[in-house]
Amino acid sequence: MTEVKIAIIGAGMFADWVHYPSLMEIDDCRVVAICDFLEDRLHQLGDKYNVTDRFTCLQTMIDTAEPDAVYIIMPPDALEEPVTRCLEQGLSVFVEKPPGLTSQQLRRWQELAAQKGGKTMVGFNRRFAPLIRESRRIVEAEGPITLAVAQYFKNFAAAAECPYNPEIAHSILLYDTIHSVDLLRWLGGEVSTVQSAVDRVIHDYQNSFHALIEFSRAQGVLLCNFAAGGRVERFEIHGHGISVFIEPPGTARVVAGDEERGSIRTSELTGVAESAVQACKLKGDGVTHRIYGYLQESQHFIDCLRHDRTPDTDFADALKTVTLVEEIAGV
Predict the structure, then answer these.
(1) Domains detected in the chain
(2) What is the pLDDT of residues 9-62, one digit of tens each?
(3) Are 18 and 296 in contact (CB under 8 A)?
(4) Taking each helix axis from N to C terminus, what angle separates 315-329 and 103-116, rounded to the nearest 10 degrees?
(5) CA-CA distance, 250 to 184, in Å (whole number)?
């Protein structure tokens, strides 16, 4: 396969901020069609990205555009019909996190993809962020990782009701903090044991999740509280006499032998100006997709399609992350 034909379901803001610009920058693929039931957004993004084939019916788009793969950028509670329909027709599928609502649903999709031959991928972009990948490389150059720490805090203290899915008690963990859980898995290996504490802070819904996880290669620590002072995301990777303290999106500190050994900068890894990296707000700023791993994850997916390889975060691998989320939540 020389050029991959991509169709996109979803014309929302997040797709506009990170997925459309990512695909437009990849030489080996072409967005051939988009689909959304909101026609104003459909035509707005079609005009913006010069995609002429626009549809409000998924099956009509598949039949007409004949894509190799479909990006389904929709909320998890809306994924069942489009994901199942695409997989049943042997199409490759990319979805955002979380990949569905339960491990049972994802397992069914994974089995369907294996039966029909389509490739799959989940957008766990933190794994592909240049700053995090370089941090891992530096630690592993000195030996194996021994400890990984993920911290994720937000200020939902004023939200009397769960801002995600009130019908799923652990939806904060599933919908959002799953990024941190997946990164710990990527760094630590296969799950051996899980000890966790789940709490309700201020309000009567689960918004605090902490876990100590024993992996096959390392220990993992998760600290998550969504009734904290504000959005803070940090990671730590510790190895043999070396540690990297990561402050996305811009910098990471390297400490070894009781000394500061310099820093890692996203600007130097990506060519994005330091001022733009520091000003990044995870919105449609023209740089978020380059520095947070969205461009790199799509490039990986396209490369796997072209060269018949299994994506690193396919549904089989993602199932392990969703299962770990459920273990932490006690589901």
Answers:
(1) 4-124 (3.40.50.720), 130-284 (3.30.360.10)
(2) 999 999 999 999 999 999 999 999 999 999 999 999 999 999 999 999 999 999
(3) no
(4) 170
(5) 20
Tokens of 5: 């034909």
Of 292, 293, 250, the C-alpha closest to 268 is: 250
Hey, is 248 helix, strand or coil? Answer: coil
Among residues 209, 202, 205, the alpha carbon closest in space to that of 162 is found at: 205
Q: What is the DSSP letter of 56?
A: S
Lowest mean pLDDT of 160-169, 222-231, 277-286, name the range. Answer: 277-286
The string of DSSP letters for 130-147 reads HHHHHHHHHHHTTS---E
Give the C-alpha separation, 14 to 209, whole Å. 26
- Tell me phi and psi for residue 256, to 5 degrees: -150, 140
In the structure encoding, which two tokens stand for residue 262, read together? 């310099």
